[in-house]
Amino acid sequence: MASLVFRQVSFSYPGSPVELFQSVDFGVSEGWTGIIGPNGAGKSTLLQLASGLLSTSQGHIHRPDDTAYCPQRTDSPPSGLRDLLDSVEGEAYRIRGHLEVDDDFLSRWPSLSHGERKRAQLAVSLWARPSLWAVDEPTNHLDATANAIIVRALQSYRGIGLLVSHDRDLLDTLCTHCLFVEPPHLDLRSGGYTTAKSSLEDDNQFVIEQKTRLAKEQRRLAREVDSRRRHQQKADRARSKRGISRKDHDAKEKIDRLRVADSGGGKGMRQLEGRIRQASERESSLIVRKQRATGVPLAGQQSSRNALVRLPEGRVSLGESRTLLTPPLMVQPSDRIALIGANGTGKSTLLRHLVGQIDLPPSDLVYLPQEVDAEESTRILEQVKQFRGAALGELMQWVSRLGSDPSQLLDSRLPSPGEIRKLMLAARMSDRPSLLVLDEPTNHMDLPSIECLEAALADFAGALLLVSHDLRFLRSLTATAWDIQPAPNDPDSLILHVVSQGVA
What we know:
Layout: E1 4-11, E2 21-28, E3 31-36, H1 43-51, E4 58-62, E5 67-70, H2 81-86, H3 90-98, H4 114-127, E6 132-136, H5 144-156, E7 160-164, H6 168-174, E8 175-182, E9 185-190, H7 193-239, H8 249-261, H9 265-285, E10 309-311, E11 314-317, E12 323-326, E13 329-331, E14 336-340, H10 347-357, E15 365-368, H11 374-384, H12 389-401, H13 406-411, H14 417-428, E16 435-439, H15 447-458, E17 463-467, H16 471-477, E18 480-486, E19 493-499
Parallel strand pairs: 3-7, 3-8, 5-6, 6-7, 12-19, 14-17, 14-18, 15-16, 16-17
Antiparallel strand pairs: 1-2, 1-4, 8-9, 10-13, 11-12, 18-19
């Protein structure tokens, strides 16, 4: 059976004084292994090391000869796409059909969606029949239909699979192991994400308890040593012959008997000091995984209005000749609504239309669009840099707990897409809004940040209207779904349906 084994592997990028990985040992065989870790932890680097695209600084990697790596980006057509499209092999037909790769994908590459490009990228890799397949974020930004196509393709693979993803459902469905990346070390656990994370947290809590116990033991022994030393000093003074007459033989004999009786005191002290050293060494050998601070506060409030949004039945233009038909829509102060639908069905357009119709004080509404251009990102960052004192401290703490370095962020000229989303939310929390309208809020966030944001939104006192392809995120936070579907017998129209039982 093929296997991937890292033996004492260390790696650092040229010019970097810090090793990203240090003396790493792990091994996996056939089946999918999820690669889990925060942004910047080196997950993509690990995939490239495993695939042979990067060389180790030290150590050795045993891998199969035939490997394939699918990067997260899909800017350029994958090498081999032309051959796949031209092939008349039955396997090529099967893979193209399985991943719905059309014959004109190469000629239409500039106009293909990210999902279509990703399907073509995966198809080329599958056709190569690699024994090791490393896949980086295959379902990012994909709707449920495209996601299902890719999941089926990943499930069909028989070999050593390495998967970087922040899709918890995918990691639970596909993976038999998860590798948690926390430079310079790695931790391999059995099970999908939910099981593996629970195991990791349980073990980490046990280590914390053991370290606490050993620290208490050291303090107790240190007090005992200190007490014995004081007793020894007192006894030494009592046993001293200084000041006794040379002719007082009875007194001298008594002191000699005391010295013989206490001659084992030094040995007992040495034993105690040895136990302290042993406890200290055991405590030092126990490694506690870094625990990111959580508990981000979303300081909202529930509005006293009967309704925050009221829209009559109507039509929303989606450009060209396409139209979205909407029933009467209302958002009440405690509503939690998921807006769902395939890519291109007008979710973002509807949100923009709805936000334009909302009659609320600006402080009551927070709208987070799906994409923020560079100019707007720079403007928001400059606004944030004007914060002072407690307001700046609170905002930066919020950003830090979502996984970004506040000082590094303030020193930057252009925030990353993930960082600007965190800033936009953090900058508005002091207003105590009553409605959050968030379009793909978890885009560009790592798993710890997503879970932290999810917990914060769960405690938000106001109303939520969310768009997300992360169904677990939506299921945990919303109770009603606005579902956009194609209109029957009308290819140019879509219809929004209100589903009271929420996201399926």
